[in-house]
Amino acid sequence: MIAAVNASVGLEVNNLRVQFGAFVAVEDTSFAVQPGESFGIVGESGSGKSTVLRAICGLNARTSGEVRLIGEGALPAPGDKAFRRRVQMVFQDPYGSLHPRQTVDRILAEPLAIHGIADAEARIERALDEVGLSDGFRFRFPHQLSGGQRQRIAIARALILEPQILLLDEPTSALDASVQAEVLNLLEQLRRERGLSFIMVSHDLAVVTHLCERLMVMQRGRTVELLSAEDLAASRVRDDYTKALMLASKGFTRR
Ligand SMILES: Nc1ncnc2c1ncn2[C@@H]1O[C@H](COP(=O)(O)OP(=O)(O)OP(=O)(O)O)[C@@H](O)[C@H]1O
Fold first, then answer.
1. How far is the centre of ligand 1, averaged over its atoms, from the C-alpha of 94 (Å)?
2. Distance between CA atoms of residues 66 and 5, nearest Å
3. Which ligand 1 atom minimizes the distance to the CA of 43?
4. What gap in Å lies between CA 42 and CA 171, rounded to an integer?
5. 25 lines ligand 1 (CB under 6 A)
């Protein structure tokens, strides 16, 4: 396993607003994720959670507001190639996000080629090892993997550039309960070992509180409240919408 080589880096979002045509999907959204922190974004479908993650990566066309890294030393701005290397995204549906006609080997080599990194062999081997898959998986296609294995490959692809922040968009929602727990535990282990910061989106409070220390609740593109996982577990919740989400999340318990 690799120890964290760089100090942890966090991220701040100020007054984010994202518009699709006349529709405002996200507005007045501000939050800060401290270096090494695990931060969750929850809300029902369509509340704007994924749009916030995509905005951080610069993937939405009409976006205003500020996104910046926080931590020691000179840090790259969004739009810089170095920012994209430090901030990596893991998508909800690994079947959709992994190229169906590429072997694992090529899937993992691609980001290295884009960023001009030479020691592909060693990095691929290490990334597979870190997500608990042996070298024997290197030449399989996505359809030759289980759902949990596909998600592990998607995580390995995100890790291969040694980022400092992972943006996780419903990383376990396509998996059944036991595999979901395995992948969440793997993510938590990687976060601790690498000193990563996480921003994780989910509609499921049980999943978010398994992994996150603080969270933001969103409804119709706006922040309902910011609270700690402890507050949530102790039902120190102000807003009725958050209370309704708690009721809807069966099996919601603090880890
Ligand atoms: N490219 C786009 N063009 C137009 N509207 C969009 C686009 N992307 C998202 N939206 C709209 O913005 C709103 C927020 O979408 P978003 O995907 O961020 O929600 P979400 O909370 O992540 O939902 P889910 O949990 O279902 O993924 C939705 O009403 C969606 O239809």
1. 19
2. 27
3. 21
4. 13
5. yes
Closest-lying ligand 1 atom to the alpha carbon of residue 203: 25
**CATH of region 10-248, choose from 3.60.130.10, 3.40.50.2000, 3.40.1190.20, 3.40.50.300:** 3.40.50.300
CA distance 67 to 30: 9
> pTM value?
0.92
CA dist 28 and 15 (Å) reads 5
pLDDT in tens, 90-124: 987 766 678 888 999 999 999 999 999 989 999 99
212-235 per-position pLDDT tens digit:
999 999 999 999 999 999 998 888
Tokens found for residue 71:
């931590």
Alpha-carbon span 169 to 140, nearest angstrom: 24
Q: Where are the domains of the chain?
A: 10-248
Task: Let me know if 23 is exposed, middle or buried by CB neighbors in 10 A (0-12, 13-18, 19+).
Answer: exposed
How many angstroms does the Cα of residue 50 sit away from the middle of ligand 1?
7
| Separation of alpha carbons 48 and 140, rounded Å | 35
